[in-house]
């Protein structure tokens, strides 16, 4: 049969006739088993069901298998039903360790403690959760595999790309795919199904043009992401030719948009919710000063009202309605950008505990059947309680027990239990360390940083409900003993972030925020980038790095950093000492290195002048040099005739020693010289000192003059 241990009823029929045996399971005749044997079989007068007696004559009943665990019913022998109730008073057969007239199998998958769609299966004593393809892990599929935000991915050292985020952590919302743009700020980009510029004609009040926008996440997922972000925005562009937005004598707008909460909005990109205006109306820069939108001037020429909507509670835009494009020559077009959100309010939310008796308190933590707690801490103290919540008998506590030991202890009615993680290096080194504790009906686990996770199994058939009733204490305990000294950051309970900073503002002995992130995250700044502290987080200063990007890792070319007086020289060919009487043949010896054209591209950044950027020399005292003058101008010098002065070309539209990356392209075709700086227009110069660059010897880069 199939799945015979699935906890459901199955039927078995055994038929023995003279020398033929048949077994049918679950009435499936097609897969029945038959056997012919060269013996005649006669049954005895005793049948044993479920196993063999432990005492008595064992020879009558002999099996290597253990006894059956489970239920049987509807037993019949020789087509005659057996009355199990008559077995009970020992009148008809006997039994041991049975419950008669009752099936006592425990269905361990009801209620189902597997979360987030995990599949439950069970053995006799326990249940198991299959978490494949759920996006969650752990004994009950409770804890998310994915980070809660792009900010969290960035601080694991990840670069821009597509990532799954789980914006409510272990809460009910599923993970979804976003694009994380890791610049100095971290942007989360969520696309919708209609990003093209769409033209609209012949729409009016009776027959409006309505468009709906469907996002790559549900509205609940979007709301969780928006709530967690520091700032969100969405660009809305409305192009118009004789198509008005607001202007109507009766005050009823002609076009509007609908946001997440299904409310109608009549302010447009760049404006504010309280005012029925466009951005130009707010700035007083509309093309007709009598109106609050450019489009309301109602002119027979294309104009637009464009800007970012940035009031978080109204985003994202889910619908746009346009009604004024049915007059002659009347037309409109709209374009809605993706939802852009920046930052993560929870990730840097922190508090500093300055005395051992200081603590923050929050409402009771409810994690009856599954609870997870995660946070970062840093301290120089050797011990202290991070978090505690008490019940009448039950409790939950996480503490730094010694400089290298964190203990997660709790009681759900089976007596106190604890999980300990030992670190080989001290944890009170004033650097950020990550703690994740989880307790569910199957096990409790604790993880510190990247150390191996420790876990304890729950006792079988013990108490499983964690019942707390007092306040949750953070940074201390109800008895004010063994308080924590240091910082706690990004505290989350079952995926919900606690606002430590708001509570710290009104609590003596606790300060909002926590200084000093570079000691922990400075190693994310590469290639000479310097870590700079910010109130929430840090940034990498790439001024003195040849690389750019949030971690100074983006190098589009081969790059080098030049200190004062340093340079790189590349020799094209060595100078061979020739016999004295052959000096006149030098030109023929080096003739293969004559250039009539060059194409040179490079990028540089500096704040120092004057500087030599590039110098190409020849054996005939000819040269090409590119230098920054004292006032930051770019100067190119060509000397292609050793008997003439060099051609000097200066390019000065702004100082190029401003610390920004400058791109330079130099192209020469004989006497024609073309120079392009920062992808701006090409400049053309004419050389007068010759067209042949003979016997080039070496290239030198980067020496401060």
TrEMBL record:
GO terms for molecular function: calcium ion binding. It is a single-pass type I membrane protein. Disulfide bonds join 487-514. Keywords: Disulfide bond, EGF-like domain, Membrane, Repeat, Signal, Transmembrane, Transmembrane helix. Residues 1-103, 349-514, 567-705 form the Laminin G domain. Belongs to the neurexin family. This is CNTP4 protein. It holds the Pfam family EGF. Residues 141-192 form the Fibrinogen C-terminal domain. GO terms for cellular component: basement membrane; membrane. It is found in: Membrane. It comes from Pachyramphus minor. Residues 105-142, 515-553 form the EGF-like domain.
């Amino acid at each position: 049969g199939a799945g015979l241990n699935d906890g459901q009823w199955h039927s078995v029929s055994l038929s023995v006739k003279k020398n033929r045996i048949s077994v049918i399971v679950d009435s499936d005749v097609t897969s029945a088993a038959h056997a012919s044997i060269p013996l005649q079989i006669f049954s005895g007068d005793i049948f044993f069901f479920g196993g063999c007696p432990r005492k008595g004559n064992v020879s009558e009943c002999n099996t290597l298998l253990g006894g059956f665990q489970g239920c049987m019913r509807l037993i019949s022998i020789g087509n005659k039903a057996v009355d199990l109730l008559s077995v009970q008073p020992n009148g008809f057969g006997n039994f041991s360790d049975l419950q008669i007239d009752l099936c006592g199998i425990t269905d361990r998958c009801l209620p189902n403690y597997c979360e987030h769609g995990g599949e439950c299966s069970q053995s006799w004593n326990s249940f198991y959760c299959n978490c494949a393809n759920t996006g969650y892990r752990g004994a009950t599929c409770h804890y998310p595999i994915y980070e809660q935000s792009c900010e969290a991915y960035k601080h694991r050292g990840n670069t821009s790309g597509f990532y799954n985020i789980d914006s409510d952590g272990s809460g009910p919302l599923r993970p979804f795919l976003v694009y994380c743009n890791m610049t100095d700020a971290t942007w989360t980009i969520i696309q919708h199904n209609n990003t093209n510029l769409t033209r609209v004609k012949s729409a009016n009040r009776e027959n409006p043009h309505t468009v709906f926008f469907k996002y790559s996440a549900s509205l609940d997922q979007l709301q969780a992401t928006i709530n967690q972000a520091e700032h969100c925005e969405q660009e809305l562009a409305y192009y118009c030719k004789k198509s008005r937005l607001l202007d109507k004598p009766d005050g009823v707008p002609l076009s509007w948009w609908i946001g997440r909460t299904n409310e109608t909005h009549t302010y447009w990109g760049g404006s504010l919710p309280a005012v029925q205006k466009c951005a130009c109306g707010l700035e007083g820069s509309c093309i007709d000063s009598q109106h609050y939108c450019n489009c309301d001037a109602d002119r027979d020429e294309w104009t637009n009202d464009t800007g970012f909507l940035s009031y978080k509670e109204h985003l994202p835009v889910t619908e746009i309605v346009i009604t004024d494009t049915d007059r002659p020559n009347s037309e409109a077009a709209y374009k809605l950008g993706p939802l852009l959100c920046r930052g993560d309010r929870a990730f840097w939310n922190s508090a500093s505990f300055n005395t051992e008796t200081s603590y923050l308190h929050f409402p009771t933590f409810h994690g009856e059947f599954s609870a997870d707690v995660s946070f970062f801490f840093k301290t120089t103290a050797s011990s202290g309680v991070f978090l505690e919540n008490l019940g009448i008998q039950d409790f939950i506590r996480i503490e730094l027990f010694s400089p290298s030991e964190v203990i997660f202890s709790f009681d759900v009615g089976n007596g106190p239990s604890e999980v300990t993680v030992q670190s080989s290096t001290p944890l009170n080194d004033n650097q950020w360390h990550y703690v994740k504790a989880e307790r569910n009906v199957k096990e409790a686990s604790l993880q510190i940083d990247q150390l191996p996770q420790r876990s304890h199994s729950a006792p079988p058939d013990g108490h499983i409900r964690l019942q707390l009733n007092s306040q949750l204490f953070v940074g201390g305990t109800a008895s004010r003993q063994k308080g924590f000294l240091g910082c706690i950051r990004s505290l989350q309970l079952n995926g919900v972030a606690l606002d430590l900073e708001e509570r710290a503002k009104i609590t003596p002995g606790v300060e909002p925020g926590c200084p000093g992130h570079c000691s922990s995250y400075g190693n994310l700044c590469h290639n000479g980038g310097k870590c700079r502290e910010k109130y929430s987080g840090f940034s990498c200063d790439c001024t003195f790095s040849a690389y750019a990007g949030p971690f100074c890792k983006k190098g589009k070319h081969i790059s080098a950093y030049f200190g004062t007086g340093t340079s790189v020289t590349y020799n094209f060919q060595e100078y061979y000492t020739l016999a004295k009487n052959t000096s006149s043949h030098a030109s023929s010896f080096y003739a293969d290195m004559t250039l009539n054209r060059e194409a040179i591209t490079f990028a540089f950044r500096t704040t120092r002048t004057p500087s030599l950027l590039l110098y190409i020399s020849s054996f005939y005292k000819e040269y090409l040099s590119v230098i920054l003058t004292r006032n930051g101008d770019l100067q190119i010098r060509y000397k292609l005739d050793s008997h003439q002065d060099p051609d000097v070309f200066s390019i000065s539209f702004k100082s190029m020693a401003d610390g920004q990356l400058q791109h330079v392209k130099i192209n020469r075709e004989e006497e024609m010289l073309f120079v392009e700086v920062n992808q701006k227009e090409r400049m053309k110069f004419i050389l007068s000192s010759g067209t042949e660059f003979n016997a080039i010897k070496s290239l030198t880069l980067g020496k401060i003059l």
